[in-house]
Amino acid sequence: MKYALLVHAPLENFSRPKDRADIAAGRAYGEALQAAGVLVGGAGLESPQSATTVSVRDGKRQVHDGPYAETKEFLAGFAIIDVPNLDAALEWAARNPAAGHLLVEVRPLVGSYFATGGNKPA
C-alpha cells in the first residue's frame, strides 16, 4: 500500500538557513528509505511564496501567484512510500528527522493511475 508522508512547516522555516546536521539527517533518512526498498519518490519544496495556483472556471484558466490557503503551516516536502500497512507507514514517519520538531502527516494514496496510465481503482 502506498502512503504519502507530508512534512508541514511554518513559513519562517523556508527562509531560515539550513543546518548542516538537519541536512545530514535528512539524507540519512532518504538513504534508509531507499535501502529498505520502500521509497517511491519524494522531494523538499520551495517556499509557498513561490507557488502558483491554477483553477478552471467557466472553461477559463485562472492563475494566481502564491499559496492558495491561508494557514500557519505549509507543505515543505513529501515522500511516497510503499509499505505493507499503516503501522509500517507510521513507523517510517516517526523516523523522519523532521518529526522531532515539525508535523509529518501520513495519508494513504487513492491510486496512482495518473502517473502509471493504469486503470482507475474501484
Q: How would you explain this protein's 3D organization?
A:
The protein is built from four helices and six strands. It is an alpha+beta fold and 122 residues long. The chain has a single domain, classed as Alpha-Beta Plaits, CATH 3.30.70.1060. It has a four-stranded antiparallel β-sheet. Strands 3-4 form a two-stranded antiparallel sheet. The mean pLDDT is 88.
Walk me through the topology.
Layout lengths: L1 E9 L1 H4 L4 H16 L3 E6 L7 E6 L2 E6 L7 E10 L3 H10 L7 E6 L4 H4 L6
Antiparallel strand pairs: 1-5, 1-6, 2-5, 3-4
Task: Give a summary of the structure in a few sentences.
This protein is an alpha+beta fold. 28% of the residues lie in helices and 35% in strands.
How far do the termini sit from each other? 15 Å
| Estimated radius of gyration | 16 Å
**CATH architecture group name:** 2-Layer Sandwich
Mind describing the biggest β-sheet? 4 strands, antiparallel
- Principal-axes geometry comes out as globular
State the low-pLDDT regions, or none. none
Order of helix and strand elements from N to C terminus: EHHEEEEHEH
CATH class: Alpha Beta
What is the count of helical runs? 4
Helix content: 25-40%
Can you count the beta strands? Answer: 6
Oligomer: single chain
Structural class of the helices, strands and pairings? alpha+beta
Strand-residue fraction?
35-45%
Number of domains: 1
How confident is the prediction overall: mean pLDDT? 88
CATH fold title: Alpha-Beta Plaits
CATH evolutionary superfamily: Dimeric alpha+beta barrel
| Major sheet strand order | 2-5-1-6
